[in-house]
């Protein structure tokens, strides 16, 4: 039993904490890596006055040596707002059909008392499986072809409702979907640039 507990504890690795300003509040940002039963990833925790206000998984890969599906994440602080950027994708041509593709942007605002983060908005676009997955027959296909009947429209709405419930966000389509994917990707580019500059 002791050996099992020890091995479980060792799967979590805390990284050095960062200090930042969120509005008028001093916030500690704590990153930690995890490797739990082969599933690897990174969590970030936002702490004010010793109290954790939000814990978010940024990065996640499944337990295979070369992950077939993955989640990438990033965050930005703008004044009193905290923005979380998330992106999901999978390796094409590897027989992966049930992995999601898409992006999400979640915006929180800190209150003046520095005690609460309130979700301001959450926009999400998700394709829950590969477009050519023959095993699925749901409303996702009507994201790419206009529904012609009442049943098809209801099937699309049912798909959207399920995504909104699972990801706790407002589903966007068309140009709005392209915009959040582009914005999430841009945040990763900015993050990489800042890391590169910090080395010099």
Percent helix among the residues? 25-40%
Are there runs of 5+ residues with pLDDT below 50, and where? Answer: 1-10
Gross morphology: globular
Number of strands: 10
Please report the distance between the alpha carbons of the first and last residues: 47 Å
The total of helices stands at 3
- Using the CA coordinates, give the radius of gyration: 19 Å
Characterize the main sheet.
10 strands, mixed
Strand content: 35-45%
Based on helices, strands and strand pairing, what is the structural class? alpha+beta
One letter per element, helices H and strands E, the order comes to: HEEEEEEEEEHEH
How many independent structural domains? 1
Mean pLDDT: 86
Structure description:
This protein has 200 residues and is of the alpha+beta class. The chain has one domain (2-198). Helix content is 26%, strand content 42%. The protein is built from three helices and ten strands, in the order H-E-E-E-E-E-E-E-E-E-H-E-H. The protein has helices at residues 2-9, 150-167, 174-198; strands at 12-14, 18-22, 25-36, 39-48, 51-61, 69-78, 81-90, 101-110, 117-127, 170-171. Strands 1, 2, 3, 4, 5, 6, 7, 8, 9 and 10 form a ten-stranded mixed β-sheet that branches. Strand 4 and strand 5 (51-61) form a beta hairpin. It is globular. The N and C termini lie far apart (47 Å).
